[in-house]
């Protein structure tokens, strides 16, 4: 009998920075989403892609509720009062888009909650062009540092996304500099 050669061990994969960082917050994001009924956080994070830019500008998902023993859940969307009737007509198509995200008929009904753009504490997100507050551009030194950080990335869209992320992180860090928690 001949001795069998041991197969070489597979190469170890080196961790990437953002991949490791995503693992740190993954459980917290999932926990927060599941508290509102969002088993798949993609519905929250990619709402514009799922619903379409025109619908996403008028509303946002707030929670998903499931009745005892019932089939399918109820997606609650927050919208302004003026956009409600127009969205109501688009609900069947929106339901299909949301269920396509889940891969099955997870959502049986969509409920619209209408409020003013600055209504309830939870509903203070502003929608579409109705907003009066425009986000401030980050300071030029923050933009420069973000651009330098993302410069090695070859993919254009990924580099742009990383620049936006770096600007947000650096701006938040600058705001919290004198604010210890």
Account of the protein in words:
- Helix 6 crosses helix 7 (about 155-175).
- The protein is extended.
- It is of the alpha+beta class and about 180 residues long.
- It has helices at about 15-35, 40-45, 45-50, 55, 85-100, 140-150, 155-175, and strands at about 60-65, 75-80, 105-115.
- Strands 1-2-3 form a 3-stranded mixed beta sheet, covered by helices on one side.
- The chain is built from 7 helices and 3 strands.
- The protein folds into 2 domains: about 30-130, 2-Layer Sandwich (GMP Synthetase, Chain A, domain 3), CATH 3.30.300; about 135-175, no CATH class.
- It starts with 16 loop residues before the first helix and ends in a 6-residue tail after the last helix.
- Helix content is about 45%, strand content about 15%.
Task: For the structure shown, list the relevant keywords.
single chain; about 180 residues; alpha+beta; GMP Synthetase, Chain A, domain 3; three-stranded mixed sheet; 7 helices
State the separation between the terminal residues, measured CA to CA: 68 Å
Q: How many domain modules?
A: 2
Model regions low in confidence, pLDDT < 50 over at least 5 residues: 129-133
CATH topology of the largest domain: GMP Synthetase, Chain A, domain 3
Order of helices and strands: HHHHEEHEHH
* Name of the level-1 CATH class of the largest domain: Alpha Beta
What order do the strands of the largest sheet run in, or round the barrel if closed? 1-2-3
| Level-2 CATH architecture of the largest domain | 2-Layer Sandwich
Structural class: alpha+beta
DSSP, total strands: 3
Radius of gyration: 22 Å
Q: What fraction of residues sit in β-strands?
A: 5-15%
Question: Could you describe the largest sheet, including whether it forms a barrel?
Answer: 3 strands, mixed
The general outline is extended
């Amino acid at each position: 009998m001949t001795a069998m050669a041991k197969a070489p061990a597979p190469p170890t994969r080196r961790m990437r920075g953002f991949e490791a960082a995503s693992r740190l917050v993954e459980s917290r994001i999932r926990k927060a989403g599941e508290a509102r009924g969002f088993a798949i956080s993609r519905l929250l994070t990619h709402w514009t892609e799922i619903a379409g830019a025109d619908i996403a500008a008028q509303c946002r998902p707030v929670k998903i509720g499931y009745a005892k023993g019932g089939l399918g859940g109820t997606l609650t969307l927050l919208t302004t009062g003026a956009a409600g009737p127009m969205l109501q007509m688009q609900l069947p198509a929106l339901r299909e888009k949301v269920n396509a995200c889940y891969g099955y008929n997870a959502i049986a009904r969509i409920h619209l909650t209408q409020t003013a753009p600055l209504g309830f504490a939870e509903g203070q997100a502003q929608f579409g062009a109705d907003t009066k507050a425009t986000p401030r551009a980050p300071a030029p030194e923050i933009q420069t540092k973000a651009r330098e950080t993302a410069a090695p990335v070859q993919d254009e869209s990924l580099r742009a996304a990383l620049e936006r992320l770096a600007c947000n992180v650096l701006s938040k860090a600058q705001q919290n500099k004198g604010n210890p928690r």
